[in-house]
Amino acid sequence: MNKKLLETYALAVCFVSMGCLSIFGGIFLYSVVEIFFPEEMNSPRMHYPPQLYNQGAVNIHPTVPPIAGQRLPPSYEKEQSEIDVGEINTQASKNIRQDIEVANSYMKSQSIMSMVRSAIVVLISSLVFAFHWRIAKRARN
Q1: CA angle 85, 88, 90 (to 5 degrees)
Q2: Do residues 66 and 60 touch, judged by C-beta distance below 8 A?
């Protein structure tokens, strides 16, 4: 095989593998940051607000007591009669905190899986790079 062509092929593969190393190295580092700083990476604006219930022309939040003369959906009427407003707001706060903790733990597990994927690609790209770099060196000499 023509040595110049072999060298060009090997260097082209090295170039592509360096691109993969750069991209997946960045993804790996981003995943590490997500694991160590989940609260900063998963800010509250990323969480969806609770569902609003439509009562005619007014949207009602399930944790806010209804405006005088309006009623909550039937599933919440029983809860409202048994629990006062302070307890409803405390329970809502607990639920929101719990949702944020679940979201953070989910993000951590997703980050760990992303790290593993990135590490596999970086390892394979490194092996491909080293192998083809040797081929390019031999073809040059």
Answers
A1: 110
A2: yes
Cα Rg, the chain, nearest whole Å? 28
Q: Which of 111, 117, 118 lies closest to 23 in space, CA to CA? A: 118
How do 53-55 and 58-60 pair as beta strands? Answer: antiparallel
Residues 6 or more apart whose Cβ sits within 8 Å of residue 96: 47
For the chain, the domains span 3-140
Q: Quote the Cα angle for 127-129-132, to 5°.
A: 105
19-28, 49-58, 106-115: segment of lowest average pLDDT: 49-58
| pTM, entire model | 0.61
